[in-house]
Amino acid sequence: MNRNQAREKALALVAQMTVEEAAGQLRYDAPAIERLGVPAYNWWNEALHGVARAGTATSFPQAIGIAASFDPELVRALGDVAATEGRAKYNAASAHGDRDIYKGLTFWSPNVNIFRDPRWGRGHETYGEDPLLTAELGVSYVKGLQGEGETMKSAACAKHFAVHSGPEALRHHFDAVASEKDMAETYLPAFHALVDAGVEAVMGAYNRTNGEPCCASARLQKILRDDWGFEGHFVSDCWAIRDFHTGHMVTDTPEESAALALKEGCDVNCGNTYIYMMKAYEKGLVTEAQIRRSAVRLFTCRYMLGLMEGSEYDAVPYEAVECPTHLAAAAEASRKACVLLKNDGMLPLDAKKLNTLGVIGPNANSRAALIGNYHGTSSRYITVLEGLQDALGDDVRVLYSQGSHLFINRDENLAQPDDRISEALTVAERSDAVVLVLGLDETLEGEEGDTGNAAASGDKADLLLPESQRRLMDAVLAVGKPTVIVLMAGSAIDLGAGADRAGAVLLTWYPGARGGRAVADILLGRVSPSGKLPVTFYRNEQLAKLPEFTDYAMRGRTYRYIEEAPLYPFGYGLTYGDCRVASAERTEGGVEAEIVNAGGMDTEEVVQVYAQNEGSANAPRNPRLVAFRRIHVPAGGSARVAMAIPADRLKVVDTQGNYVDEGTPVFYVGLGQPDARTEALTGHAAVKL
After folding, report:
1. Which of 142, 156, 180, 330 is most buried, taking the most CB atoms under 10 A from its CB?
2. Would you name the residues annotated as active-site residues?
3. Could you tell me the residue range of the domain that residue 605 belongs to?
């Protein structure tokens, strides 16, 4: 059913409702209207990296790990997996009369905010710091979630519109001030791309943007609906409308907050402020027409999903959940997400030369470190320790020590500090090689705890590992055994001298519930790592030189505006091959390149094209990503790739936020950025065109 047909049906249905009934439908937990045959519906569901918070589902890597794949086709397939399992779970729950929270088909995903500051706790929910990469992957996930059938398979939501990336502790009263240039160049492009792709919903952010609460912003609504032509529905972040009178102080009462949000285009309230809508109506703060307008938008969505009259997806069986095909897609994503940051030749490990392998660290056998936040439940978890044990079987003895608590100075309350380090040293001393698994989990980086998300976490104070892990790392490395550090985290971590002393560093992000198997496959050389960083990894001391966390100007931020060489650049990642761009040339509307692999292992690579408009005063400080493509390159062989570069990507943004033709675009084709740090780390330079 197309939107026009669905809207006609919605208009007819809403016309039969009383004003009070229509107002009740604007709550996220919309009640049934039995006399009209309208079932209850809960709008709140999550599918950031698989269906979340509603029981068993296939678990993908966290979004930042998915972004590291630089693979839009894979991301679209993952979106389809989530939609299929969402349908299977919705069908099963509805058959039992269960219409509770997290049981619907309106998924509040993806998060296409820009990860502009490495301290932001929610950054791992995003696709990274680059507007183009974020847009391309976000569009793919939306298309996968919504499908191309007669009926929308599920409804995707672009969040959090539009300028939102911390600090978490301030979000309920903070005003994110952004220039016209930064809005147009950085903060808005991904949202625009998702609207063009037909995303059904947009969620407003908690904070204000340039003075207006994002969930009641006349300016943002004009951009969204008038300039871009968005026709879907708009939802508030959870309890964000309450912030109008408790945090932002732009209203005095809940009735005024409800009225302001509704008048400025917020159709459904995640939270409880819209229970005051009828009081607002009775006081003349809102009109019947405004209430019915939002109700029509919401029922248009429900008709498009087939929730009112049935659809071809009603037959999706529960057996689709965690089926082999879905698990295989998640496993592929886990492998493609891992980024090899360093390798002195230690990797891949040769199991035939190992008698004993030591696996040490607080994340080595941690389920929490597999799943990130906004996660579902897996019927099976495979940690890094378990993945290695399964892969090595009885051929290699695997010794294990937790080594330390994740962040406290002892693991047992009554013990002395560092109570697990002696065991870790014992394991390292008796091992031929050591896998040291360190990092964070959602308790150390995530969303600020509030009414809707009670697990308190938040932003990082620095880019270092917790002190307990730093002491463990130093102690284990001092043993002198060949050691690979496996880093499980959702954001930039500076390992300091530990990275220099380790033989290899493999970043796995939060690789998904069964991600330990993929990590083992990479460590043992069954597959080559091929992920690339979707964010800049800064040195910890560079934090002092970054703009204040509350400063939303882009100067000095992300690879496009960074002024000093980072620890690891955006777009960087090693493989077990030895690939370089052998040649490249401009074509009509794009670039073609040949990539050769002088190494001894097949691998996938991500070819990247950056552009700089020479002579332009408005171009970003550094070349920006304008195209990318993941390809397979056989050992000792080569592969050719053609990439289109739309003309709009070669424009620059002036201070008024206008896209203009300015300067002479120069292309750089490589397997990372055309910067000195990438060249030093990889040994290969980009080809300039």
Report:
1. 156
2. 237
3. 579-688
